[in-house]
Recover the amino acids of this structure.
């Protein structure tokens, strides 16, 4: 079956190793498979659910597009565009918000985490953001959506919204119910400072994450300072359950080398953490530095990046405007 792939990344700066290993690395692999049709979106409408500096946002939109390309997505064979250039996303989100239940959104754990203690002060956009995400996916009849583990609940909601719309408007299979593509292993990369916390752009400590633009010395320093535990390197996967930091670092190493956790454990069993950390840093530098270099190079050519986004948005618009027209007809507009 030909897969239609859709995924998005927010242009909120500090794209990190979690974004790369949990999502972008997968985008690249999927986009290299001949028959797949891939759409990768810089979700700038999602970004403004939290206050953004307009100048910085513009830079971040280009940087996210540059990261896609630098990681290995070919803009000639995949569509790369930014969400705000295709108005069907906002229109579709409104219509879908009228079939979605408040009770469904109230269950979203990411809203609870992001809104923090004072939910009254969070924007309405932050609350309804999973509906916009459903609109993104459903406009393109996506069959598969590659994401990290933290987006699982949003994808389940997207499936519920699609089914409810189809039921409400008596349109069997009209909105395609997508399959999440979440890797079994390494789909949740944790902070370098706390193995129980997700690696995140919003963590105030830069030492908690490897940014995709970090240079060699910065990577070396961050891995040197990464939290471990006082025990020697584990000898078995079973030893990892109570050792979140060791599990995370070994997971990062395995994912970067596309090898199983067991293989990495065998490589380092009985050795010191310092030796493992040296190898981990080398691997990170080997994989991340070329991407970082390419991102910086691409960012020097804003015209090129803007052209890619413009071309991508024209192609995306063709697909999305057809679908929103059909949606409007079904609704009765
Ligand atoms: P965003 O921008 O927060 O993250 C982009 C992608 O990176 C993954 N990710 C991680 N994976 C593993 N470990 C981590 N620590 C980690 N941190 C982030 C995310 O799971 C995601 O796949 N709502 C989405 C963007 C979006 C979208 C869409 C995705 C908007 N519309 C439609 C798919 C389809 C988000 O905020 O991702």
């Amino acid at each position: 079956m030909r897969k239609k792939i859709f995924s998005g990344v927010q242009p909120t700066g500090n794209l990190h190793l979690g974004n790369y290993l949990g999502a972008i690395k997968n985008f690249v692999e999927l986009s290299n498979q001949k028959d797949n049709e891939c759409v990768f979106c810089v979700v700038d409408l999602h970004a403004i659910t939290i206050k953004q500096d307009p100048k910085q946002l513009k830079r971040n939109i280009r940087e996210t597009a540059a990261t896609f390309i630098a990681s290995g997505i070919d803009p000639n064979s995949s569509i790369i565009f930014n969400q705000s250039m295709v108005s069907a996303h906002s229109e579709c989100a409104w219509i879908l918000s009228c079939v979605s239940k408040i009770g469904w959104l109230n269950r979203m754990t990411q809203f609870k985490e992001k809104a923090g203690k004072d939910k009254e002060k969070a924007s309405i956009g932050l609350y309804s953001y999973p509906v916009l995400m459903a609109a993104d996916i459903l406009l393109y009849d996506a069959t598969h959506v590659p994401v990290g583990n933290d987006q699982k609940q949003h994808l389940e909601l997207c499936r519920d919204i699609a089914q409810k719309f189809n039921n409400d408007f008596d349109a069997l299979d009209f909105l395609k119910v997508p399959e999440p593509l979440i890797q079994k292993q390494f789909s949740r990369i944790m902070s370098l400072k706390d193995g129980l916390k997700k690696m995140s752009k919003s963590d105030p400590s830069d030492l908690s994450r490897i940014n995709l633009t970090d240079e060699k010395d910065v990577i070396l320093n961050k891995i040197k300072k990464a939290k471990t535990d006082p025990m020697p390197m584990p000898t078995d996967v079973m030893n990892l359950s109570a050792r979140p930091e060791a599990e995370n670092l070994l997971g990062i190493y395995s994912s970067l080398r596309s090898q199983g956790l067991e293989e990495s454990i065998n490589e380092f069993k009985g050795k010191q953490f310092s030796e493992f950390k040296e190898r981990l840093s080398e691997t990170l530098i080997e994989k991340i530095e070329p991407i970082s270099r390419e991102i910086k190079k691409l960012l020097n050519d804003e015209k090129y990046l803007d052209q890619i986004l413009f071309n991508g948005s024209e192609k995306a618009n063709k697909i999305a405007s057809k679908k929103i027209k059909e949606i409007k007809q079904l609704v009765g507009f």
Q: What stands out?
A: Residues 6-10, 18-19, 22-23, 43, 46, 133, 136-137, 145, 147-148, 150-151, 154, 187-189, 198-199 surround tryptophanyl-5'AMP (CB under 6 Å).
